[in-house]
Amino acid sequence: MTLDAHQIPADDEHPRERQRGPVTLRRGQSDEATTTDQRLLDSRGPSAWVHTDPWRVLRIQAEFVEGFGALAEVPRAVTVFGSARTLRDHPEYQLGRDIGAALATAGFAAITGGGPGTMEAVNRGCSEAGGQSIGLGIELPFEQGLNPWVDLGVNFRYFFARKTMFIKYSQAFICLPGGFGTLDELFEALTLVQTKKVTKFPVVLFGTEYWGGLYDWLNDSVMKHGKIGEKDLALLHLTDDIDDAIRVVEEAYQAWSDAH
Hints:
Keywords: Cytokinin biosynthesis, Hydrolase. The protein is α/β, with parallel strands linked by helices.
């Protein structure tokens, strides 16, 4: 097919154009002194390109691939959250060990954020009981690597990639007393269950003294004002008993297994 002369734009109607792979650059955007290949192969050039958004996309992709590959064969598992600030002589540390051991005895792998404190305690209890102890670490300016009780560990740069792994490879969340990080994971999980992005996924709040105020606020304020319903509040299970927590996890897993 050919265009008639009157259909062909005049030269001044054609903006300057440059191709950068599948990307088209026109007008002022086309003013690049070098090509992508040149910047790649010229080792003497600037290194700022490794911090550009397109390169970050590849890093993000790599984190998902690495996480999926490392965790794909993990058996049924439960993620346990809790404070990195819990000291080893604190009762919550022993509680974490007991919960990790109980999960291992019930046939669940224990997944934590891989850090110190409660996370270390859960990994330790699971590992000592012969279970699979997993830590999904995150790059932070103030914490040093994975705790020594992690048997299978994956480190992440990006919180959202790490969060996906927590949800994808867990059958439940157990939240011990914790701070912003625990609250973040707690409410993200509740949102995903509420919107049916994940199913048969219990969220256990362990420690009525610690979590009772939050639960009461959700009931007396959030639900009272119609922001959530009774079914939404029922997604949370508040307990002080390890056997009760494991029962909730096992029943939800059995319901999920029966549905698949």
